[in-house]
Design goal:
The complex is a heterotrimer of chains A (558), B (181) and C (303). Chain A has 558 residues and is of the alpha+beta class. Helices cover 39% and strands 17% of the residues of chain A. Among the domains of chain A are: 1-112, Beta Polymerase, domain 2, CATH 3.30.460.80; 250-497, Cytochrome-c3 Hydrogenase, chain B. Chain A has helices at 3-14, 38-47, 61-64, 105-115, 210-216, 223-227, 235-250, 256-284, 288-309, 329-354, 357-363, 371-376, 382-385, 393-396, 417-441, 493-499, 501-505, 513-519, 524-527, 545-552, and strands spanning 18-22, 28-33, 51-60, 66-75, 80-89, 94-96, 119-121, 170-174, 186-192, 195-202, 318-319, 322-323, 461-468, 471-479, 485-491. In chain A, the strands form five sheets. In chain A, strands 1-2-5-4-3 form a five-stranded mixed β-sheet. In chain A, helix 8 (256-284) packs antiparallel against helix 15 (417-441). The relative contact order of chain A is 0.15. By secondary structure, chain B is α+β, with helices and mostly antiparallel strands. Chain B has a single domain, classed as Alpha-Beta Plaits (2-Layer Sandwich). Chain B is elongated and about 80 Å long. With 303 residues, chain C is mostly helical. Chain C has one domain (4-301). Chain C is built from eleven helices and no strands. Chain C has helices at residues 4-34, 44-53, 64-83, 99-119, 123-154, 159-168, 173-189, 201-204, 214-239, 248-271, 278-301. The longest helix of chain C has 32 residues, at 123-154. Classes of the chains: A alpha+beta (558), B alpha+beta (181), C mainly alpha (303). Chains in contact: A-B, A-C, B-C. Chain A binds chain C through residues 170-173, 178-180, 191, 193-194, 282-293, 296, 358-359, 361-362, 509-514, 552-555, and chain C through 31, 34-37, 121-124, 126-127, 130, 193-194, 196-197, 200-203, 205, 271-280.
Chain lengths: 558, 181, 303
């Protein structure tokens, strides 16, 4: 339904409890509601076809004596987003949980329970998500009174309490160190023989406190360089999304040529990321030759990036107002040459891989979930597109120069890991198409950087979604005084997709664990930006180290 | 079909041959515009501290040890080679060199330290009007600066007049370990 | 020379012990070439074994089965190597033993690995052990039939008859069928892709060997290298016995050359296939068992 229809329906239902207004851009609808109506309105938005993206909690006690919670929904078919805002008083930051019906909100709520001390009534799993297990209770890092570099004393022998294993299963601990995982994370997989019956995830071990840091220490134009390092593979996505959200908040319009250059860098990043994933997927099913060959094909893209931006990764191209370097005619020819070679080689790889029945055997039917569940868990990116969910932020909520380039969005309906393989391979060809069109349609000259004449106005909200290779990355910025953002929320696509992993693992074989987790192309560094600490709400039982070792050695829990 | 795929895979493999580079015996040349370690040219540097203000890693430190002498210290340990220092430098005194083989056992090998004799303006003491038009990139901390070279940390404080007590406090700088500490 | 029957077992042991790491090096180099990279030098497995010998023998489980399992595996394979008629020459033991002993010893080696894995008390080792057990159960019949085929034709289970005997009794339909089945099972015998399921690195770290380090681990690795060399030799000896000149040293060299070709095949297939899951592998092995039994039936019939 369109924005207007939606507003009418909601007003009819909720009347004075809700106030609708326009956000910084035409496609942003802002709904301010009473705390008591938050849950009902959220469910109404979901029923109207909204896809839950993420929630943004803020400490606004110094400004207006309240905490604020914003739930973000996307209406992909119609191309607009809805910010659902509510406030809670400083002495009682309690909200109703929407997680039982919208499972994707589960982690958001747990995150703010840890970081801001919010309480979500009815959250089905109020465990620590982000802060370390020995982080003292009562200190909530995102609150304004906590310094960014606080190092509380650590404690010994405090451990995360895993979910109850289903009866008749043993726990296989995967992580924090395991060859399957690129970064530390812990999956406690409950297996019955070789069949997976359940999974509990404990992550955020490499949480770096980036949001807090950039809200207190770093200035506007330094944040893109921090944002770029959120992820070692999709850095440009984060820098671009941040810059776009600040530009929207402050009303800065950047030059068209700069938008094209941003688009080109994003697509080049997608190319290298998908080829990297192809290699990793090959390695995870034990096929190291695919790993080596696809990374060999990927290498010229890294060299191209080095010539374009000065570095193989962490391009450092994006600043607020535009980009830092130009694509000269010589570089343009360079890009076209490299793309031609890559297209040939990937064509060869595609033929070799797609018809290989041994690869089919390891990926078809693995991680199978129906389309309705993919929608219920709000999955995004190739993971969702492999299950028949036709969403792509580049097409649905266009940004940068995507409104001027024509491309297809490959969608598979096999619903399994094979689908993700096919979708990603086809996306490589689409990316090459986009870069060629962008190079063609780019305005021949023009400024690269639009300078900001005055200090940016404070307390304006901006939202930007960018299609990372893994799915949609959401950045929400509230501009602040002192030349830095007041609030910056980053949600990488793996954050959402990881919540769906236990469902994907259910009833599959343990041998398929690596490829299923690998099929979401997990980027744990993108996911862990905040600390998680948790203990079970009712009984506080601490697992001693010896008990954890016993778990690791396969003895049943007493 | 399985067999034809396998044959195609083997053919795919035979074409490129061995791609291993015999590094360090052979090395690839660094492209133009490569962002290696920043290099300061002391003859051009005016000691404004713009690079220190805009370094995202806070790895460039500025310290006034007396009204006439400013130490500009680049501690390469946290440098991310982003090149913002080179961007904002008004005198183009910083160049991103092609050096990237910087591994060393002693962190002092990758530091650069400039001791600059600062001239005092007759009218106002210290001022830099750098005419940076971009409002979010302006020079942030003017005046006398007291970063801690011992702890290699930036202390965001500056004073109009040189203050020896603030300089002394910098030496005793420690990171907090509790709220309010 | 009569004395040769006393010396040839020692020659067997020497040749196998010296060359097993080299054949492993060949596999790694071939995998590297297929992956467009330089790869380690051919002598790298020797260096790996030497390096492991210098490391600490962490005895995390602290029980005797844990400590003895590597020795058991290594000893079992070494005894098999000593018994076989390498280079066409039977050693002094061959006259008194039969093929059942070979099957028994190889199974014993496998059981030693299982024992070590179970004694490790590690979840990953347990899963690896269960996969290894399933593989052993399903793949031993193929090995047994390969050895017994000749025995069926010549009506004798003796070592002397059964091995070179399979083709000495003429290359028949059953021999041809068994040749195909053996090649199809070869990757499982040597535990390479697509059948390196028990020690799948990305899933199980090292599977049964996860708790082993230092000299114990070196013994296990050495035992695996000897085992894969033995299986290559078995193929050459049973199905290609016409590679012989009658002169002992020349026969040794010829057999080694033929084994090298077999290794190249193992490497090629191993590098161009992903790993299968255990349930998929079991279905595959079941087919091989049926085919082996068909080969025995044909042999009994005289075909």
């Amino acid at each position: 339904m369109t924005q207007d229809t939606l507003i009418q329906t909601l007003r009819a239902r909720f009347g004075p409890a809700l106030a609708a207004s326009q956000g910084g851009a035409a496609r942003r609808l802002v709904l301010d509601v009473d705390r008591t109506a938050l849950r009902a309105v959220a469910l109404a938005l979901r029923d109207a076809g909204g896809r839950y993206m993420v929630g943004v909690g803020s400490d606004e006690r110094d400004r207006r004596g309240a905490f604020s919670m914003i739930h973000l929904f996307a209406f992909d078919k119609e191309g607009f987003t809805a910010d659902l805002r509510a406030s809670a008083p400083a002495d009682n930051p309690e909200f109703d949980s929407i997680a039982p019906e919208i499972p994707s909100a589960g982690w958001t709520e747990r995150e703010y329970m840890d970081l801001l001390g919010f309480m979500f009534k009815g959250n089905p799993k109020p465990k620590r998500l982000i802060l370390a297990d020995d982080w003292p209770a009562g200190i909530h890092p995102l609150r304004k009174d906590v310094p960014y570099n606080l190092v509380p004393p650590s404690a010994e022998d405090v451990a995360y309490e895993l979910d109850e294993a289903p009866p008749g299963t043993t726990t296989v601990p995967i992580g924090p160190f395991h060859p399957t995982l690129h970064e530390p994370a812990h999956f406690a997989v409950y297996v019955d023989g070789e069949t997976i019956k359940g999974c509990d995830y404990r992550g955020f071990m490499t949480h770096r406190g980036i949001e807090k840091l950039c809200q207190t220490q770093v200035s506007y134009n330094e944040v893109p360089f921090v944002a770029e390092r959120i992820c070692g593979i999709c850095g440009s996505v984060h820098a671009t999304a941040y810059a776009q959200s600040v530009e929207e908040a402050a009303g800065i319009k950047i030059a068209r040529r700069a938008e094209f250059i941003r688009t080109i860098m994003l697509e080049i990043e997608r190319l290298h990321s998908h080829l990297l994933w192809l290699g990793v997927a090959g390695h995870l099913i034990g096929y190291d030759t695919i790993f080596m060959q696809s990374w060999r094909v990927r290498e010229p893209i890294m060299w191209l990036s080095e010539r374009l931006t000065g570095n193989r990764k962490t391009y450092g191209m994006v600043v607020i107002g535009g980009v830092r370097r130009d694509i000269t005619p010589a570089l343009k020819d360079d890009i076209l040459n490299v793309l031609r070679k890559v297209e040939d080689e990937v064509g060869g790889l595609k033929d070799a891989v797609l018809k290989d029945t041994s690869i089919h055997r390891r990926t078809k039917g693995v991680g199978l979930i129906p389309r309705e569940e993919a929608v219920a868990w709000s999955l995004i990116g190739p993971v969702a597109r492999a299950r028949g969910v036709d969403i792509d932020v580049r097409r649905d909520h266009p940004y940068a120069a995507y409104d001027e380039v024509a491309f297809d969005v490959p969608v598979a309906d096999s619903g399994d890991v094979w689908g993700t393989l096919v979708v990603r391979l086809l996306e490589v060809f689409e990316s090459i198409k986009i870069v060629r069109q962008a190079l063609d349609k780019m305005p021949p000259d023009g400024p690269l950087l639009t300078e900001v004449a005055d200090v940016l106005p404070a307390f304006r909200h901006g939202l930007s979604m960018v299609e990372a290779p893994r799915g949609e990355s959401v950045h929400y910025v509230v501009t602040g005084a002192e030349n830095r953002p007041e609030r910056w929320r980053v949600r990488a696509p793996t954050y959402t997709n990881l919540q769906g992993v236990p469902r994907m693992l259910l009833d599959n074989q343990l041998a398929d664990f690596p490829i299923i987790v690998g099929s979401i192309d997990p980027c744990f560094s993108c996911t862990d930006r905040v600390l998680v600490v948790d203990g079970r709400a009712r009984s506080h039982r601490v697992l001693a180290r010896s008990e954890i070792e016993a778990l690791g050695r396969g003895r049943r829990r007493p | 079909m399985w067999l034809t795929s396998k044959i195609k895979q083997v053919l795919l493999v035979l074409k490129p041959g061995k791609v291993t580079l015999n590094y360090p015996a052979e090395s690839r040349p660094v492209p133009e515009g490569f962002r290696g370690q920043p290099a300061w040219d002391h003859t051009k540097c005016i000691g404004c501290g713009g690079c220190a203000n805009h370094c995202p890693a806070r790895t460039i430190l500025t310290r006034d040890i007396c009204p006439e002498i400013r130490i500009l210290f680049y501690d390469g340990a946290r440098c991310t080679y982003c090149g913002r220092c080179a961007d904002v430098c008004p005198e183009k005194a910083i160049v991103m060199s092609p050096d990237f083989e910087l591994a060393t056992g002693d962190r002092n090998d990758i530091t650069q330290s400039l001791e600059l004799f600062m001239l005092t303006c007759q009218r106002c003491g210290r001022c830099y009007d750098l005419e940076i038009k971009n409002a979010i990139d302006k020079l942030d901390l003017r005046g006398y600066r007291y970063d801690s070279l011992e702890a290699r940390t930036v202390i965001r404080r500056s004073t109009d007049r040189f203050a020896p007590d603030v300089l002394g406090a910098t030496e005793a700088f420690r990171r907090p370990d509790r709220i309010g500490g | 020379m009569r004395a040769l029957i006393y010396v040839s077992p020692l020659i067997n042991a020497a040749v196998f012990l010296l060359l097993a790491p080299l054949f492993e090096g060949v596999l790694r180099k071939l995998a590297a070439k297929i992956q467009s990279r330089q790869g380690p030098p051919l002598i790298q497995p020797y260096r790996d074994l030497l390096k492991l010998l210098g490391k600490q023998n962490l005895n995390s489980a602290g029980t005797w089965p844990f400590k003895l399992a590597p020795l058991g595996a290594f000893a079992a394979v070494l005894v098999v190597v000593v018994l076989i008629p390498f280079g066409g020459r039977l050693g002094v033991f061959a006259g008194r033993l039969d093929v059942i002993v070979v099957v028994y010893l190889l199974t014993l080696g496998g059981v030693a690995v299982l024992m070590g894995a179970l004694a490790s008390r590690n979840t990953f080792a347990l899963i690896g052990a269960s996969r290894e057990m399933v593989t052993m159960i399903m793949v031993e019949p193929v090995l047994a039939v390969t050895l017994i085929l000749g025995a069926v034709k010549l009506r004798s289970l003796g070592l002397a008859a059964a091995m070179p005997g399979a083709a000495g009794a003429k290359f028949t339909l059953s021999t041809g069928l068994m040749l195909a089945v053996y090649l199809l099972a070869l990757q499982a015998f040597v535990a390479r892709q697509p059948f390196d399921i028990a020690e799948a690195e990305v899933e199980l770290l090292e599977g049964p060997f996860i708790e082993y380090s230092g000299p114990n681990y070196a013994l296990f690795k050495y035992a695996m290298m000897l085992k894969q060399m033995f299986y290559a030799w078995l193929f050459v000896s049973v199905f290609l016995p016409w590679i012989r000149t009658g002169i002992y040293p020349a026969d040794i060299v010829l057999q080694l050359a033929a084994m090298l070709v077999v290794f190249l095949l193992i490497g090629l297939v191993g590098s161009t296939n992903p790993r299968l899951r255990i349930d998929q592998a079991v279905r595959y092995y079941a087919v091989l068992i049926v085919l082996s039994l068909a080969a025995v039936a044909l042999a009994v019939k005289g075909w």
